[in-house]
Design a protein that fits this description.
The chain is of the alpha/beta class. About 35% of the residues lie in helices and about 20% in strands. It folds into two domains: about 5-215, DHBP synthase; about 240-345, Rossmann fold (3-Layer(aba) Sandwich), CATH 3.40.50. The structure holds threonylcarbamoyladenylate (TXA) and magnesium ion.
């Protein structure tokens, strides 16, 4: 298949490109498009066959449901059977934006979209291209992240191209995504709202509006409520270790691991904070990528996947990543880092 990668204006998207994307979507094909979190691989959410293609192209397990993207409240109403007061508050305060709401589905939502679950995950993205594309299509759009299953999520058109060229017709490329981490998935079916996946909207921000909010942290033996959380995810090709703790000791440990890696003729990449970078330079890693300041979780979030992709592109055998403090966006960042590292994490 020939894949067209079209550069689209991220603020004032060109009408012809939106039309082209909408035509593919209406005819049951897949289109990759930017959102404020990560790029999505879109299909008509009401067309089970189109949605099936998403699973095939990504190599995604069938029991992992898809988020449905909408451009209006009326469109969301057609998918959701009933709205709790908490859900209403979320819509009012956080839509459009990086918050996905899990709510009872209506019968128009095909089973493949929810993996047979009674609830559907719905999100109104804030990226102008995403909103305009959904509106132009006139249909709700099911879209997981536009990467191959298990790989780091795509935060630029280049990342999508690397994973999906030859597999879909069109990539709408508007450059880098602003948030850089996936949306927060929140179950709001009644009772205490529960975070099924931490993401772009922090627990603290939700609590300000909703009061008590729970974090669903399934243990290894439990079945997670967001089925996607059980798979190895976001993983680069190299062997990855996350190190967190006292800054000087982290730098020291990274220095040792770089030395050990080089002794085994391995290429070692380092993802670190702005504050640690000057001290890691002279340890001579094969790649030194600055995630952002320790004090700016938003910066780290928006650069994280670019760092993981670069390590893959430059063939790093070993990746050492500096962790940051939990809380706020830090919680979502550490969630992704731990998964990318297959839970190899050192507290130093
Ligand atoms: O920011 C995002 O959320 C991006 C952009 C493209 O919108 N999308 C995204 O989709 O990250 P995906 O498929 O990579 O992750 C969706 C997550 C998975 O963990 C999945 O299990 C969960 O949402 N999910 C989807 N539908 C669900 C449902 N009905 N009930 C519970 N969890 C659900
Ligand atoms: Mg994903």
């Amino acid at each position: 298949m020939l894949t067209k990668r079209s550069y689209i204006d991220g603020i004032h998207p060109e009408a012809e490109l939106l039309k082209e994307g909408a035509e593919w979507l209406r005819s049951g094909e897949l289109v990759a498009f930017p959102t404020e979190t990560v790029y999505g691989l879109g299909a008509n959410a009401l067309d089970a066959q189109a949605c099936e293609k998403i699973f095939r192209v990504k190599g995604r397990p069938q029991d992992n449901p898809l988020i449905v993207h909408v451009s209006s409240r009326a469109m969301a109403n057609s998918l959701v059977g009933s709205w709790s007061p908490e859900a209403e508050l979320c819509v009012e305060h956080f839509w459009p934006g990086p918050l996905t709401l899990v709510l009872p589905k209506t019968s128009i939502v095909p089973d493949i979209v929810t993996a047979g679950l009674a609830n559907v995950a719905v999100r109104m993205p804030s990226h102008p291209v995403a909103l305009a594309l959904i509106e132009e299509t006139g249909l709700p759009i099911a879209a997981p992240s536009a990467n191959l299953s298990g790989k780091p999520s795509p935060t630029s058109g280049r990342h999508v191209w690397r994973d999906l060229k030859g597999k879909i017709h069109l990539i709408l490329d508007a450059g880098a995504c602003q948030v850089g981490l996936e949306s927060t998935v929140l179950e709001v079916t009644g009772g205490v709202p529960t975070i099924l996946r931490p993401g772009g909207i922090s627990k603290e921000a939700l609590e300000e509006i909703l009061g008590e909010v729970r974090m669903n942290t399934p243990t290894e033996s439990q079945v997670p409520k967001a089925p996607g959380m059980k798979y190895r995810h976001y993983a680069p090709q190299g062997e990855m270790i996350v190190m967190i703790g006292h800054q000087e000791r982290v730098i020291q440990r990274m220095g040792q691991e770089i030395y050990k890696g080089h002794a085994r003729l391995k290429r070692v990449g380092v993802l670190c904070t702005l504050e640690s970078a000057p001290f890691l330079h002279n340890r001579l890693p094969d790649l030194l990528f600055v995630l952002g300041s320790r004090a700016r979780a938003d910066e780290v979030a928006s650069n994280l996947y670019e760092g993981l992709h670069l390590c893959d592109e430059r063939g790093m055998d070993i990746i050492l990543a500096e962790g940051i403090e939990e809380g706020g966006l830090g919680t979502a960042i550490m969630n992704r880092l731990q998964k990318a590292a297959g839970h190899r994490i050192e507290y130093i």
